[in-house]
Specification:
The chain has 22 helices and 14 strands. By secondary structure, the protein is α/β, with parallel strands linked by helices. A hairpin with a 5-residue loop joins strand 7 (about 365) and strand 8 (about 370-375).
Amino acid sequence: MIDRKYTFQNVNNSSYRYSLFKGNLFPEKYIGDNEAEVEWNADSTNSSKVFVHTQSYKVFQKESMLFLWGRRGTGKTAIIRMLDYEIKQKKNKLYLFSTVIRPEKFFYDLTTIYRDPMFSNFYKEELSISFVKIWQWVIISSALVEVDRNYSLPDADIPDQIKTVKKYLAKHKLGHSSGLFFNGTGVYNALLEQLKGEFKRIQRTNQSPAFFVSNVLSRLTSDDFRTATEALCSFLHISKSKILVMIDSNELYNLKDEVSAALVSSLMKEILDFYEKKSSGIIVKAAFPSEMYPYFPMENIGKINDKIHFIHWRFKDIVNLIAKRYYNLLIEKDYRLNGLFNLNDFENFTKSKEFLEQYFPETVITFSGIKFPTFPFIIRHTQKKPRQIITILNTILSLANENDISFTCITKECITEGSNIRLKELTDEAFSIYDSIYNDATSLIKKAFTDMKNLIKIKDVHERLSKCKSHLTSFDRDDAIRLFFECGLIGIVMKEEQYFTTKHIIQSLFEYQVKDILVEQFDHLYAIHPMFYQPLNIQVDMESLVYPMPVAEEFEEDGLLCLYKDTNSNG
């Protein structure tokens, strides 16, 4: 580190000199909704056009890649919906059929039933066995419904195996017209109706809870279900094809609860079992929030390790994302575009950068007077999550519209002000998921870090924790430090570069950027992530700018290397 003096100053909206922001701004969704599910349900064709084919997407398509992990807002749903879309459009030759399961309501209802005191004496193994059977039925039934949906032809043209499938679905009112994703008598609802009905019957007759499980499972795995399953597998084998069943991420896990933990571990086990029986033709993949990864109850970890992928967004991926959506916006608003571009060009970083440079300034001036490249400046206010990027871009564009600034000539002020206005929203979302892991996690973070300096030693954190004893009832100090790393609040300072005469760029590594976990070291300097400055009223060193460190291959892409060269040439 460079030996120098630090000038710390409190940073919040009241201390910034806004010229465009008047205090009341309701951002329009100019470049899209920050919820992928909403976008895809509204217009899947348009959503597919603005989708960026990242390396993570390419990896997830592989048959052996079963478990997709990504932080909240990193695009798990978009990846799943895009793969489903491409399979249905016959653009992906790996699978003949595809279907997506959204598990939130089912997950909630099922765990609610099994939390009844009636099941309090069940062993974890007993819960897991029943949940494995339930997941098996849900997955296979979803596959049956999808195949049924694809064969709405005259009987004479339907293979005999598919007729068997249709017969089973019709008998149990599970055909595709029943609504797998909605409030009809679809797969989830049919199962839950059985569970709730049996639950009431057992309560009424005072029978042993063991009968609840055995009675439901015997109906789920009835002879006609087995016959339909065999017919489906036979059809897939003869046609040399596969069906992909994808289970989207549920953000509401409570892994401190034994029932929830058993439901998750049984799902992972069942996915692995389907993979090991690939001859069935049914492949299952699932997405999970990576914030939960250290706490997930994973059995047979050795079998799972090489089937896990963590979503990673590179700088160039985010620029491509912005370019695609910005191009779409300008076309939609009937702007005359400069140059000959189309959406397919923006899978290429150079093309994306060339396109965006026509409409955005090359650099901006931060509130502390530091000149910085535009897109690295925007991105440093996020944890490289598409949801966060979309939120900030929508805010920038709404600010421009409110001040009669053309979308073809976005000003520096729009970017510096728009990048800072909605950081509380991004911060609250980053913290909230940890409340399902630790009691009072958000309150502890705010208590420990409000008014903290942005460059600290780990001893400073321990001193703050000594004043937060009332918030440490559910975990110890080591848990607290781990929480601060995991949520991306603090990272380790790796490098400091002098910038002009007195300014400095401090590159820091945060846990969301790496697969390995960061650990506390008492002799190291740590930095608070810029996204949290305003919401936590952080005291920021005004002579430096903390930048989440890019990995080696990204360093030149994000414009920082060019900036250093310009600085040195200017003396």
